């Protein structure tokens, strides 16, 4: 599958601007990690772009709809990564793609939410400020903090380093993501 086809799938499934931004931001961070790790940047970017594609229209069936569509297209690695992007779904983490999608998803969304509350947005944002917000239970209450910590353990990532990486990547794409 090419990225352009994945974009068409996203457009078909998602209308909500904040969900589109989330999918695009996860895609961008996944691409950056793939390039850093010598992985398939197109594949990783597509996994990020489509990981929540069915959530808006089929929240009770998420991620089964998008996973089935990807399996029909024989995109099994991407389908598995998407089926595993939440630890409570009980899937295995067999590849770096699986582990990094899990680690990038929730924390990227959280960092964007935190940046939108700051007058300078991403500029000057630090791991310390993100971790402080993580401890504030009332802020972005829908974000599962345990999921963030479990994902770091599964991917073998350091929290501060991971936060810095995500902020840096998002800063490089601020205008594209309307941040």
Structure, explained:
The chain is an all-alpha fold and 179 residues long. It has a single domain (3-177), classed as Hypothetical protein af1432, CATH 1.10.3210. Helix content is 65%, strand content 0%. It is built from ten helices and no strands. The protein has helices at 3-13, 17-37, 41-50, 64-72, 76-83, 96-116, 127-135, 145-155, 159-171, 174-177. The longest helix is centred in the N-terminal third of the chain and has 21 residues, at 17-37. The two termini are 29 Å apart.
Task: List the keywords.
Hypothetical protein af1432, 179 residues, mainly alpha, 10 helices, globular
CATH topology: Hypothetical protein af1432
Order of helices and strands: HHHHHHHHHH
Main β-sheet: number of strands, strand sense, barrel status?
none
Number of alpha- plus pi-helical segments: 10
Helices, strands, pairings?
Blueprint: H1 3-13, H2 17-37, H3 41-50, H4 64-72, H5 76-83, H6 96-116, H7 127-135, H8 145-155, H9 159-171, H10 174-177
Helix pairs in contact: 1-3, 2-3, 2-6, 2-9, 3-5, 4-5, 5-6, 6-8, 6-9
Concise account of the structure shown:
The protein is an all-alpha fold. It has helices at residues 3-13, 17-37, 41-50, 64-72, 76-83, 96-116, 127-135, 145-155, 159-171, 174-177.
């Amino acid at each position: 599958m090419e990225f352009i086809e994945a974009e068409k799938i996203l457009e078909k499934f998602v209308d909500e601007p904040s969900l589109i931004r989330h999918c695009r931001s996860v895609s961008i961070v996944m691409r950056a990690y793939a390039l850093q790790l010598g992985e398939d940047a197109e594949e990783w970017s597509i996994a990020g772009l489509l990981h929540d594609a069915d959530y808006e229209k089929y929240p009770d069936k998420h991620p089964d709809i998008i996973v089935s569509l990807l399996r029909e297209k024989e995109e099994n690695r991407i389908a598995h990564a998407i089926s595993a992007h939440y630890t409570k779904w009980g899937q295995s983490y067999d590849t770096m793609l699986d582990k990094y999608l899990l680690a990038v998803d929730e924390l990227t969304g959280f960092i964007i939410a935190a940046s939108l509350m700051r007058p300078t947005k991403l500029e000057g944002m630090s791991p310390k400020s993100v971790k402080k917000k993580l401890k504030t239970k009332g802020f972005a209450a829908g974000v599962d903090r345990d999921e963030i910590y479990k994902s770091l353990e599964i991917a073998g990532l350091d929290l501060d380093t991971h936060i810095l990486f995500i902020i840096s990547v998002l800063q490089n794409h601020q205008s594209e993501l309307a941040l």
